[in-house]
Specification:
Number of strands: 18
Shape: elongated
Structural class: mainly beta
Distance between the termini: 47 Å
Helix content: under 10%
Length: 293
Amino acid sequence: TTIKGDITSQVTDNHQIKAGVQFRLTELDMTRRSSYLGAIDPRKQYNVEIWNIKPTEFGVYLSDRMEYAGLVINLGARLDRWDPKAKELDNFIAPYITDSTYIDGTKVLDRIPVRGRDADPQLFFSPRIGVSHPISDEAAMYFSYSRNAQTQPFSRIFHNYNDFGSISWPTVPKISQAPIRSTNYELGVQWEFMPRKFGLNFTAYLRDIENYNPISLVVVPRSGPRGVLYSVVSSYGYADSRGVEVSLQALRQTYFDFVTFMGRVNYTYSYIKASSLAGLSAAQITWFSTAAG
């Protein structure tokens, strides 16, 4: 469910103000029965995962389009608040207890997550600026900078929320994972090399992306009916995305009063490089052991 409102006002000849607000309620309803090889209790034929979570998102934005002779500036900012409306694990080193529970009327031994405190809401501030100015009667140059943020995918955050899935190597995601953040730069030129007939656009961009990949920290538990290994998953990593786009555009033209011609041809080259954590140095610890208590 999304509720939003926007307002635009030309407050002066040089300033156009835009503002808006948005509220979004997402309902996630999970009912799943999964079968795995092996079980903590042989009478347990399958794992049951049932939960209902309703995360909320609230955002406000404000922007000002400033127009002067030979110069256009777009300046704006957005503030978002995301609340997962879910419980965080009390202790990631001991995330569950082994206790009796009932499944379809049968009392079995099961691993039960220990969740206590509410996961912390997160605030995202996203500024942006864009500048455009002519360099001749037929050409203009523009550049922009922005800082954006978005939550991690729900499938990564709420995976196995109240069930540890595989008996041999369950996954324990952290609810309050750092969001995916990107810093974006863009530079472009527009040129009508044949006025009112043909134009050429060139754009180059660069994006620095934080928390792009998940990271799994493997925990070796104490002996006893506590499973073998489990992975604590959080956000991590860096990505670099960059590219160029060249566009040749034929503006709308009419010949012989009945033939209309227009079109566009684009060429795009882009690539992305992402970091990874190999855990091969002492500073990159990816294994933790509680075997000694």
